[in-house]
Amino acid sequence: MKRALISVSDKSGIIEFAESLVKLGYEILSTGGTKRVFEENGIPVTGVEEVTGFPEILDGRVKTLHPSIHGGLLAKLSNPAHKEQIESQNIKPIDLVCVNLYPFQQTIANPNVAFEDAIENIDIGGPSMLRSAAKNFETVTVIVDAADYDAVLAELNVNGVTTLKTRQKLSAKVFRHTAAYDSFIAEYLTEQAGEELPEQVTFTYELKQSLRYGENPHQKASFYEKRLGSNFSIAKARQLHGKELSYNNIHDADAALQIVKEFNEPAAVAVKHMNPCGVGTGATVEDAFSKAFAADPVSIFGGIVAFNRAVDGATAAQLHEIFLEIVIAPAFSDEALDILTAKKNIRLLTVPFDQTGGVERMLTSVEGGLLVQDLDSFSLADADVKVATDRTPTAEEMEALELAWKVVKHVKSNAIVVADKDMTLGVGAGQMNRVGAAKIALEQAGEKAKGAVMASDAFFPMDDTVEAAAKAGITAIIQPGGSIRDEDSIKKANEYGIAMIMTGIRHFKH
Questions:
Q1: Which of 58, 197, 321, 339 has the most other CB atoms within 10 Å of its CB?
Q2: What is the pLDDT averaged over residues 53-64?
Q3: pTM value?
Q4: Chain-centre distance of CA 129, in angstroms?
Q5: Average pLDDT over residues 489-502
């Protein structure tokens, strides 16, 4: 008689699966809660302690860690010496293992979990059985996912055994699963121990969707989700309408979210190719979007717009007039949905703006390596702001400087933003020198630059950017400072009556 060892924390589908195995002539071995479920449902089952001759001890911490179990899992039946050894010890082979693990992830997902509870939900016997069975896939079928029950039963019903190819695929799945399980434990314990720079790091992500292609059609791509990641993310977004997100959509949507969450007042952010092309604030989302659109009515075409307030009918009517790839908001009114879903291809996403507090590390791949850093969550409120010039900014200029500073940290370096207190007027992104970025931003702002303010993501190495700003009519500047030639820029600002404040913090973004 063939034997199947089943011990699962997730009981979904397990009764039907075990009943089918019994009909196929399998003896079922089991432990603890799984064994009780089988007994309650009339499924013949043999307790593991009957096989090992040893009771469960240490509150169930030790029950399957025994040669009678692992000998039956690891014996190579094609090896005569192995067969002789297990027969001499009265160990019977185990043909199928179905195990899933203590719910460690779900346990630590609770922010109030006690450390002791987390530790008790670290499974030891389960991974050991899975790894033993997976190593011996030549003869053992191992299942860690209820989604595989039907496929395994289909092969058993037709052939009496699973194919080697199937067993090999299931084995690889087990090792991916146990590796992910261990990575959650390692990450949790590393955080608890206060280790900030461990000698090894492992990050686990789960496939969310296959993508049609990457940045370009010739590049394959897929989207993976961090299992215990931030809820305020595109990975957790709820899509209400439109076709699947593309690789570039996901990148741009994330950029839009990171910017719009900077604002407490109603705000709208338009993004194109990872850079903001228009940001507006106002008393309502309709007002905010009107300003974001006016900031750059050309670049917004085919872009992504994010709001930090629910989209109403009046705002949706404006959005309907423009070709947009995605609109993101905390919610959409029924009227807004009626208006926007009239367009077949526009994607409508909602994310929980009440859950923006989490701070994650930023991972950037390079060939053969990985860069890891904290997200740039530094705000103007965190900075030691100093007025460097003779003139102090007015209250209205300070409002504008704060808006520009919130935006410039999200613009590709070298970055310059021209703004007033309600909206961006010009954005210079990704230039090889700061004067070039300023020129683009000022040209875009045009006449609106007169009386506006300027933000720079990094210091001015020369006074030429201040000179260009002054000639365009800029009245106040915010920049980190820290150049050995700061005094040149300060002197030039004083010459033109420009107020300049320095934050001491740069916002490079590559």
A1: 339
A2: 75
A3: 0.84
A4: 31
A5: 97
Nearest to 231 by CA among 201, 213, 257: 257
Sign, CA torsion 219/222/228/231 = positive
**Residue 353 · residue 255 · CB < 8 Å:** no
State the Rg of the chain over Cα.
30
> Stretch 264-292: mean pLDDT, rounded?
96
Strand partners, 502: 386, 479
Active-site residue set? 135, 273
The first and second tokens of residue 218, run together, are 């010739």
Which alpha helices (H) appear in 296-424, and where do they start and end?
313-320, 334-340, 395-408
Token output for 289: 């979007």
pLDDT in tens, 440-458: 999 999 999 999 999 999 9
Burial-class residue 377 by CB neighbours within 10 Å (0-12, 13-18, 19+). exposed
Burial pattern 428-456, b for ≥16 Cβ within 10 A else e, equals bbbbeebbebbbbbbebbeebbeebbbbb
pLDDT tens-digit map of 117-174: 999 889 888 899 999 999 999 999 999 999 999 999 999 999 999 999 999 999 999 9
Alpha-carbon dihedral sign for residues 261, 263, 267, 272: negative
Verify cis geometry, omega within 30 degrees of 0, for the bond prior to 414. Answer: yes
